[in-house]
User: Which sequence fits this backbone?
């Protein structure tokens, strides 16, 4: 009799957990559209692989990315909407260090729509260190787009938004496990749905620096 009651209780608990998951799934992932300016004239295959990697990173955070090739779509010729952003892949940039692989342009309140990624530096780093160019490019793109969704205080001590990328972080990138933290994922979804994202990020994760230094 006691065993039967335990079994029934276990079924009820499992049912509640299942209903909770279903409710979360019904909400669906948040979505963004990224207008890609391929000013570095990358090969289509390389760009596609990089976009796939960046999309995978965002998908793990329950954010779906729709890519728009601006070299083939006149739809890019407008000011980005609420959940639209621009990713400029340029040959190089003017920064204080060649170890900066991307920049995000943010206003005083941390809002922004545009980011740059410097391809020649990424290509040179992978030629020297033996990393996968498409994966590195996609990860840099995800990092910079993360700034557009999280604001100027987005750097953390771990995960894809880490301010300084040393060997342990690069190894996680190569393994495909360099992702947004749960707090960052929640903050991005809150921002995309118009909720107060500032409450989602704990104070210890806030850092005032925008440069990408692996």
Assistant:
């Amino acid at each position: 009799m006691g065993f039967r009651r335990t079994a029934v209780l276990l079924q009820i608990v499992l049912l509640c957990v299942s209903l909770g998951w279903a409710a979360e799934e019904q909400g669906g992932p948040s979505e963004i559209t990224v207008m890609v300016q391929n000013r570095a004239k990358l090969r289509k295959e390389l760009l596609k692989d990089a976009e796939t990697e960046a999309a995978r990173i965002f998908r793990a955070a329950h954010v779906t990315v729709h890519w728009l090739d601006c070299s083939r779509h006149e739809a890019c010729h407008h000011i980005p909407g609420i959940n639209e952003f621009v990713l400029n892949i340029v040959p190089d940039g003017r920064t204080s260090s060649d170890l900066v692989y991307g920049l995000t342009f943010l206003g005083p309140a941390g809002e922004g729509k545009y980011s740059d990624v410097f391809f020649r530096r990424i290509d040179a780093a992978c030629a020297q260190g033996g990393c996968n160019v498409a994966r590195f490019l996609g990860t840099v793109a995800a990092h910079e787009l993360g700034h557009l969704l999280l604001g100027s205080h987005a750097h953390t001590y771990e995960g894809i938004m880490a301010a300084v990328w040393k060997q342990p972080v690069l190894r996680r990138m190569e393994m495909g496990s360099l992702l947004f933290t749960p707090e960052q994922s929640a903050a991005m979804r809150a921002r995309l749905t118009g909720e107060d994202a500032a409450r989602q990020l704990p104070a210890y994760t806030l850092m005032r620096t925008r440069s990408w230094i692996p």
In short: Residues 1-27, 196-214 have pLDDT under 50 and may be disordered.
